[in-house]
Write a structure and sequence with these properties.
- The chain has 131 residues and is mainly alpha-helical.
- 73% of the residues lie in helices and 3% in strands.
- A two-stranded antiparallel ribbon has the order 1-2.
- β1 and β2 form a beta hairpin.
- α1 runs antiparallel to α2, α1 packs across α3 and α3 packs antiparallel against α4.
- The longest helix has 32 residues.
Length: 131
């Protein structure tokens, strides 16, 4: 008599551990990136179609639903950015300063600070451009 091979169920594997849940939540933010990329592509396509088409698209983007969608997108991007810098110390070689290993929290904090500074600078630059 031959024994059947044990096959472990993979259904819901990511719900078994909080680390996996955070991992899947981070990976799910890729869907929000795809949505925003599609919005940008449509914007460029409308711009290529002419001023009337572009203005109609911009009017649609100024609606309450679009603003709510963009608020959700910003929240998803913020979570993605935080988790990206949170895993950075785990994926990069150790950084040593004066013979001491740099703490993971410092690496994450510096990454987030630089990201925030560059985002504000880019926003200021874009705001300073003439319409």
């Amino acid at each position: 008599m031959m024994r059947r091979t044990y096959v472990r169920s993979m259904a819901g594997w990511w719900r078994r551990d909080p680390v996996f849940i955070r991992y899947m939540a981070r990976e799910a933010t890729a869907l929000f990136v795809v949505i925003y990329a599609a919005i940008l592509l449509v914007t460029v396509a409308r711009l290529a179609q002419g001023e009337t088409s572009f203005n109609a698209w911009m009017a649609l983007l100024a609606g309450k639903t679009s603003i709510a969608l963009h608020a959700i997108l910003v929240a998803a991007f913020a979570y993605h950015t935080y988790t990206w810098f949170e895993i950075m110390p785990k994926t990069m070689p150790p950084i040593r300063i004066a013979g001491r290993k740099l703490a993971p929290g410092v690496i994450t904090g510096v990454g987030l600070a630089v990201s925030a500074i560059l985002s504000v600078a880019l926003f200021a630059l874009a705001s300073a451009l003439p319409p």
